[in-house]
Specification:
Elements lengths: L5 E3 L6 E3 L1 E4 L10 H13 L4 E3 L8 H13 L7 E6 L16 H15 L4 E6 L8 H14 L2 E6 L4 H14 L6 E2 L9 H6 L1 H6 L3 E4 L31 H4 L2 H16 L4 H10 L4 E6 L4 H8 L1 H5 L4 H11 L6
Parallel strand pairs: 3-4, 3-10, 4-5, 5-6, 6-7, 7-8, 8-9, 9-10
Antiparallel strand pairs: 1-2
Helix pairs in contact: 1-2, 1-11, 2-3, 3-4, 4-5, 9-13
């Protein structure tokens, strides 16, 4: 397997592996601590140094599983980068503690996450969504205070608009507070607008780094849905009915089938090609991978081989398949 590249997180001095590993959907749902340990070990052996989580994943259970798995693996704290995200909350029916970025919630949420992870600090802390009901200045002060306290080393956002990110950065700059360093947006061949258009000026203006999620468009870009929804796949699980419309889209699956033919020609899988395409973007610091079994971790890490084959001609062919109006 090719060596794992390390990329700077935006303009910070922190370096993260080009491919990283996250626990959304799987940990606490499809994956227990034993399997989590296997997946984390395989990812780390493949060169991954960044592991992503969130308070809301499986109602806090995902953080517990990842924290316990890392402890049982015996990893030294200085050898890996870990993140969590806060916004949704896990306390039902409690005012000020759900779907918010108010100061009370943020300062208590980080303590809860650290307790579940079994850590003294996280490297990266994200505001999981914007909160239109809390002044951005209140959120910026609270996140900066969390960094100053040592409970997080860097803070950032997830699925914030460019205007919201810039407003937060400007407030921090004026008040001499810790600035947001990174954003975690969805980015894949079918979802490009925010990363390639909306955030375009932020990379140079404020040095925004990206830790992107869903490189496979919730599984669509694996190619396994081109003939319908297979038994046992994520879309067949209770609670994921919302995915079926995307995964059974005939036009998109026709494009995925064409992408699969290109991947076969390059001697890689469709998944590896799709992941490598995301990693090829110079503004992407790391691509967060997910997996429900160890085999998927191995396959996804194989995207490093695909990355080496993405020359200008292949990139143009990929764009022509997914965005056919660009073809000459």
């Amino acid at each position: 397997m090719a060596d794992m590249p390390l990329n700077r997180l935006g303009r910070s001095g922190l370096k993260v592996s080009a491919l990283s590993f996250g626990s959304w959907v799987t940990f606490g749902g499809q994956v227990d601590t034993g399997l989590a340990k296997e997946q984390l070990a395989v990812a780390r052996e493949g060169g991954v140094n960044f592991f992503d989580n969130a308070e809301a994943y499986a109602g806090g259970k995902s953080e517990e599983i990842m924290g316990k798995a890392i402890a049982e693996l015996g990893w030294a704290r200085h050898t890996y980068v870990i993140s969590t995200k806060i916004f949704w909350g896990i306390h039902e029916g409690v005012p000020n503690m759900k779907n918010t970025l108010n100061r009370k919630y943020l300062l208590q949420a980080i303590d809860g996450s650290l307790d579940r992870l079994g850590l003294d600090f996280v490297d990266l802390l994200f505001c999981h969504r914007p909160d239109p009901e809390t002044p951005i200045e209140e959120t910026v002060w609270a996140m900066s205070d969390i960094v100053s306290s040592g409970k997080a080393l860097y803070w950032g956002t997830s699925e914030w608009s460019a205007d919201e990110i810039r407003a937060a950065w400007d407030i921090a700059d004026r008040r001499n507070l810790h600035k947001p360093v990174m954003e975690q947006p969805q980015y894949n061949l079918f979802e490009t607008r925010r990363v390639e258009k909306e955030y375009a000026r932020l990379y140079e203006d404020i040095g925004l780094g990206l830790t992107t999620w869903s490189p496979l468009a919730s599984g669509l870009l694996t190619g396994k849905y081109v003939d319908g929804i297979p038994e046992g796949s994520r879309a067949s699980l209770p609670g994921y009915e919302w995915l079926k419309g995307l995964l059974t889209d005939e036009e998109k699956n026709a494009q995925v089938r064409e992408l699969g033919a290109l991947a076969e020609r390059l001697d890689v899988t469709t998944s590896q090609l799709a992941i490598a395409w995301v990693a090829k973007n110079p503004h992407v610091s790391t691509v967060i991978l997910g997996a429900s079994n160890v085999e998927q971790v191995h396959e996804n890490l194989g995207a490093l081989e695909a990355l080496e084959r993405l020359d200008d001609d292949v990139m143009a062919e990929i764009v022509g398949i997914i965005h056919p109006w660009t073809r000459g």
